[in-house]
Amino acid sequence: MEDQDDLVSQLIDEAIKSGDGNEQNPTVSESGRELYDKYGFSENMEEEDGKETEDPLVTMAAEFTRKVDQIQLKQQADEHVSQSVKWENFLISSRNRGFVRTPELKSLVRLGVPHEHRPKIWKECIERRVKMVKEDLGPCYYQNLTVQKYNTSNPAVKQIELDLLRTLPNNKHYDKITSSGIPKLRNVLLAYSVHNPVIGYCQGLNRLAAIALLYLEEEDVFWCLVCIIEHIMPMDYYSKTLVGSQTDQKVLKDLLADKLPRLNAHLDLHNIDLSLVTFNWFITIFCDNIPAEMMLRIWDTFLFEGDKVMFRYALAFFKVAEEKLLAQKDYLSIFSTLRELPTMMKDVKKISQQQLEELDAIRREFVPRHSRDNMIGSDDDDEEFETLDAIDGNCT
Predict the structure, then answer these.
(1) Residue 362: what pLDDT?
(2) Measured over all CA atoms, what is the biggest interatomic distance in the chain, rounded to whole angstroms?
(3) CA proximity to 343, closest of 69, 155, 25, 3
(4) Contact, 373 vs 234, CB < 8 A?
(5) Residue 247 predicted with pLDDT over 90
(6) What is the CATH number of the domain that holds 375?
(7) Which positions are tagged coiled coil (predicted)?
(8) Phi, psi of 296 (to 5 degrees)
């Protein structure tokens, strides 16, 4: 047993020494095209080997898709400028009063936090929930955890090491052992496994930490995990039993039956178990194959409002794809479409507006069905929602 522990320790030490993050990925192709977006995700371009595609229809379809994507990116860029101005004005006007949850701020968050402001806003959202815990545990708590993190008796060590390169393989910060994000990701996951030995580590936490590391410092990402696992999500969401996660899948099915009865009946007719697809959406907070802009918009509202956001966006996804799903007439084609559904969610504005239309359903129907401590809608009272509805109408 000691020899096995020594081997694990040696492998970790070697990974740390090689993973200093100094190796740089090329950022452009030979033709000068960007290989990665601003978040570090691969643009998934085809190999530029000089060969022509044999089927001209495939070439035309690919070119059309690229042009549509370019138009959407241009529209998003124009909207980003407008949003940035609103955020700048808000941050200037509120800098003397600190981070206060106001209807104006919530409305802005729902419309998307600009890239340059995400570090501040995400950190403030997290701090609001974990401030008292941090004060109780003391200022050096994370540093103390890191001293214990490589204890080879920790059962999480081996699994974390195995999962590091599986986390976000399409992101340059995590695509190889020498990538800059890998040592930070390892540190955070090991520290959390020491902090919360009941949960330790389960697959899914690596993705949460990796997304948070795109914007936050290492220690802040640790507190982000504490915030999500222990304050936002229900109990037992990431436990070995996954009871909380399974409960949410049942609730989503009920909401789908209420809001989209035709689609729900269609899925039932073909014996589709929706949770085979949606379970990963929830446990990774929509990190699973969803376009980066869409995924980060969900994270903006999730960190600010809580887990009810996941249900709103899930319903919005199904609403947007309803006709396409109804057009599939057998189990395999329906399930295949469901698996591909996240990759289709590129129209951030349309989907975000759609999820706001689900507010009333989530608030009125979800609360009495779901008995748990952090009840959906518990952060907000009806008066605030009424105010927000008026504000949202002016900001879309």
Answers:
(1) 65
(2) 66
(3) 69
(4) yes
(5) yes
(6) 1.10.472.80
(7) none
(8) -70, -30
Considering the domain architecture, whether residues 128 and 177 belong to the same structural domain is answered as yes
Give the span between the Cα atoms of 247 and 250, in whole angstroms: 5
- Measured CA to CA, the distance from residue 44 to residue 49 in angstroms comes to 15
Could you tell me if residue 85 is inside a domain? no
* Cα of 262 vs its chain's centroid, Å: 29
Tokens of 142: 């994370």
35-71 pLDDT, tens digit each? 888 999 987 643 433 444 456 665 666 566 666 666 6
Domain of 172? 118-232
8 A C-beta contact, residue 372 and residue 234: yes
DSSP 238-252: SSSS-HHHHHHHHHH
Identify the domain boundary among 175, 200, 232.
Answer: 232
Instruction: Please give the Cα distance from 360 to 210 (Å, whole number).
Output: 32
How deeply is 111 buried, as exposed, middle or buried, from its count of CB atoms within 10 A (0-12, 13-18, 19+)?
buried
Amino acid at 163: D
CA distance 269 to 331: 9
pLDDT tens for 157-208 read 999 999 999 999 999 999 999 999 999 999 999 999 999 999 999 989 999 9
Please give the structure tokens belonging to residue 161.
Answer: 């090491």
Three-class SS of residue 115?
A: helix
Cβ neighbors of 25 (< 8 A, separation 6 or more) are 35, 36, 172, 175, 179
Which helix (H) or strand (E) is 13 found in, with range? helix 2-18
Measured CA to CA, the distance from residue 57 to residue 41 in angstroms comes to 28
CA 58 – CA 156 distance, rounded (Å)? 46
* Residue 360 covered by a domain: yes
How far is residue 191's CA from residue 203's CA, in Å, rounded to a whole number?
15
Q: Give me the helices (H) in 138-242, please.
A: 141-148, 156-163, 181-195, 205-213, 218-227
Q: Is-contact 234 244, C-beta < 8 A?
A: yes
Rounded Cα distance, 61 and 59, in Å: 5
| pTM exceeding 0.90 | no
* Whole-number pLDDT of residue 70: 61
Residue 275: DSSP 8-state? H
Is 285 among the domain residues? yes
Residues 372 and 252 in one domain: yes
